[in-house]
Amino acid sequence: MKENRSIEDKINDALNSIDNIDRATPVPFFYTRLMARMNREDTSWGKVTSFVARPVVAFATILLVIFINVFAVYNSNTNISSNSTDKTELAAVDEYSQISADNSSIYDIENTKP
Fold this sequence. Notes:
The protein is built from 4 helices and no strands. It has a domain at 25-99. It is an all-alpha fold.
């Protein structure tokens, strides 16, 4: 019975705690600021800047720039190595043509008449 009494006291305390509650009031000029925001005309530049200013878009743009730079550096290194192999192959072809100097070709035109 003592437990029932304590529970009833707790219920009465909870119900009595809302007796002095007042209605919530907004901060000053809340309605004016709300109406100004609702009536504000969004320009196209405002929409673009709000879209670009999103963290996801900014982060994706940074990653794209880094990816393009890495790709460009990787391709420039492969081009340099392929150019050096081309030069090596050309040097080997030149050496081979010098070794077989005894053979004449169509392009070796000799002037037989003085």
